[in-house]
Specification:
The chain is built from 19 helices and 28 strands. By secondary structure, the chain is an alpha+beta fold. The protein folds into three domains: 145 residues, Creatinase/prolidase N-terminal domain (Creatine Amidinohydrolase, Chain A, domain 1), CATH 3.40.350; 145 residues, Creatinase/prolidase N-terminal domain (Creatine Amidinohydrolase, Chain A, domain 1, 3-Layer(aba) Sandwich); 245 residues, Creatine Amidinohydrolase, CATH 3.90.230.10. It is globular, with a radius of gyration of 25 Å. The two termini are 39 Å apart.
Length: 614
């Protein structure tokens, strides 16, 4: 057999391919949990895919849902009762959940059909006491769960100690990554200025203090970065920002570098995480009204404040929108990051075009090759998420993660690669779907319909106040016309050297936040044919103001900042109108203009051909 290209590639620095879960472990772990619940007089227990910060990505020692059920997706809940158990996930994970868990013990359930509260209402036995960990659910979520338990004739019970922790014998240690300063010339605004804006917002909201429970908000406010979460430069911690005076940041002192400590110390105090409860109690004792972020603050925080005599105020964290609206420095940085990332993608696609026809490539080979090209920039800090490289039927899994066990050869058909990089000046996220060999007519049809939706979002103009939910249908209409759709949002927000998934902005049926200039979003419609192939096309876009001659309203549109050619072999020209063809040709001309000087030799030749007019 010819030497595999993988043997000529460096090992991945930021990604591994070990099997993350074993369905055979699920039954004994569920049985052990049921025994523990019976000893506590509980009829069941809720296990969310969450840590105390309600983040999308959780550190290893908080991955309780994965440990119990085998499911490693980024969203989901399990409910374990004495006689039945459900794993409730959204449409992205329908196939993955069934593959990763033991379906003889746990029933995968689509959230769209049976959400968590409805499942509880339908299945909790009358008089049943349903346990939950108050550090893993928000105030609003607990209220919803209480209502569901009551409707079933039972009660929701907060537990002092999560029962899974006593069963998890080889539980990983908490992360200890150093907390570093994020330079102001990259952030574009110093911490003192950010705190002044936050405190002004607290005054207008008539609250006495804000608890920062979202690590993204913590990192942004204090211009710090960490490494406690895989692929996302976050320090896990909290802060309390009073309406007047100096804030307190709660971080493990041994993790804070001298530079970061000096930067925080110039504007506030640093305290160990164990001091958080005492300070919340002190605010409560003083009768303070304390704002908690409704989307990330644990129910336990509200209880601590309320029990001490204060008033927890569950609402909007003012930092979320401040962080979402990138300043000019952040936008300049992300544009620069996307140029070098685009050049890395072109080198990777050139390699793929050369190696794929030999029939020896695997999904892991493609992941390693792409990471190596990004590393060649000399500025890569990490990948922004585990690269999705799906060949054939694996491409039909929107959040597929290749392992040694699932690794497929890249054979004639479709290869979908969704990837990104973390650079100090910006976070990237791009998806390209490539034809390996001659694609079928159906593949060309589906790809072109996805591309039409992608172009519709790129070209959209909309009045100020428009939300992502109002734009989402534009990406779906070409698919709907053929009786097709996709089961994920069209776009998510993206941070500035922070999380590749950032709220509150998004383009989806649930995206109610108005889009504003400076917000970065993804534009990624798709199509997935289970068991055969999948298609997704993704660029990042920035909301910008547009001047419409003769108009009398404030109008916004999108600036595209991702630069990489589309797959010409999958474009069915007869499905495109003249305006769409002109848009693709103009985009490819920009790709060539932006990247030609950043690549050379074979890659430059490949790029020139890929960017020729249709």
């Amino acid at each position: 057999m010819p030497q595999s290209p993988a043997s000529r590639l460096p090992a991945c620095r930021f990604q591994s391919f070990s099997e993350p879960s074993d369905p055979a472990e699920v039954a004994p772990r569920i049985a052990a949990l049921r025994q523990a619940l019976a000893r506590q007089g509980l009829a069941g227990f809720i296990v969310p895919r969450a840590d105390e910060h309600q983040g999308e990505y959780v550190p290893g020692h908080m991955a309780r849902l994965a440990w119990l059920t085998g499911f490693t997706g980024s969203a989901g809940n399990a409910v374990v009762l004495a006689e039945k158990a459900a794993l409730i996930v959204d449409g992205r994970y329908t196939i993955q959940s069934a593959e990763q868990t033991d379906t003889a013990v746990v029933t995968p359930t689509r959230m769209e059909e049976t959400p968590l509260d409805r499942w509880i209402e339908q299945n909790l036995p009358p008089g049943g006491r349903l346990g939950y960990d108050p550090w893993l659910h928000t105030v609003d979520a607990v209220a919803k769960l209480e209502k569901a338990a009551a409707a079933a004739g039972g009660t929701l019970v907060a537990v002092g100690q999560n029962p899974i922790d006593a069963l998890w014998s080889d539980r990983p240690a908490p992360p200890t990554a150093p907390v570093k300063a994020h330079r102001t010339d990259l952030a574009g605004e110093d911490t003192q200025s950010k705190l002044a804006r936050i405190q002004d917002a607290l005054g207008k909201a008539k609250v006495d203090a804000l608890v920062i429970s979202d690590p993204h908000a913590l990192a942004w406010t204090f211009n710090i970065r960490g490494g406690d979460i895989e692929h996302t430069p976050l320090p896990l911690g909290y802060a309390i920002v009073p309406r007047e005076g100096r804030p307190t940041v709660f971080l493990a002192p041994e993790k804070v570098t001298n530079e970061a400590g000096d930067a925080i110390g110039a504007v506030g105090e640093i305290a160990p995480p164990a001091a958080l409860e005492a300070q919340l109690a002190a605010l409560g004792a003083a009768g303070a009204r304390v704002r908690l972020d409704a989307t990330t603050a644990a129910s336990a925080l509200a209880t601590l404040i309320r029990d001490a005599g204060g008033t927890p105020d569950s609402g909007t964290d003012p930092i979320a929108l401040m962080k979402a609206r990138k300043n000019e420095t952040e936008l300049a940085g992300t544009r620069a990051a996307h140029l070098r990332d685009g050049a890395a993608m072109v080198r990777f696609l050139t390699w793929l075009a050369r190696e794929a026809p030999g029939g020896q490539l695997t999904e892991i080979d493609t992941v390693a090759a792409l990471e190596a090209e990004r590393a060649r920039t000399g500025l890569l800090k990490d990948v922004s998420f585990t690269t999705i490289a799906g060949a054939g039927p694996n491409a039909a899994l929107p959040h597929y993660r290749v392992t040694q066990a699932s690794n497929r050869r890249v054979e004639p058909g479709i290869l979908l690669v969704d990837s990104g990089g973390q650079y100090e000046d910006g976070t990237t996220d791009i998806t390209r779907t490539m034809a390996i060999g001659e694609p079928s007519d159906e593949m060309r049809d589906r790809y072109t319909r996805v591309l039409k939706g992608h172009i519709a979002i790129s070209r959209a103009v909309f009045v100020k106040g428009t939300s992502g939910a109002q734009l989402d249908a534009l990406a779906r209409l070409p698919l709907w016309q053929a009786g097709l759709d996709f089961d994920h949002g069209t776009g998510h927000g993206v941070g500035s050297y922070l999380s590749v998934h950032e709220g509150p902005q998004r383009i989806s049926k649930l995206g109610t936040t108005p889009l504003e200039p400076g917000m970065i979003l993804s534009n990624e419609p798709g199509y997935y044919k289970e068991g055969e192939y999948g298609i997704r096309i993704e660029n990042l876009i920035v909301v910008e103001e547009r001047i419409i001659p003769g108009g009398d309203r404030t109008i916004y549109g999108f600036e595209t900042i991702t630069w990489c050619p589309y797959e010409r072999a999958l474009i069915e020209l007869k499905l495109l109108d003249e305006g769409e063809i002109a848009w693709i040709n103009a985009y490819h001309a920009q790709v060539w203009g932006n990247l030609a000087s950043l690549v050379e030799g074979e890659a430059k030749d490949w790029l020139e051909k890929a960017c020729l007019p249709l």
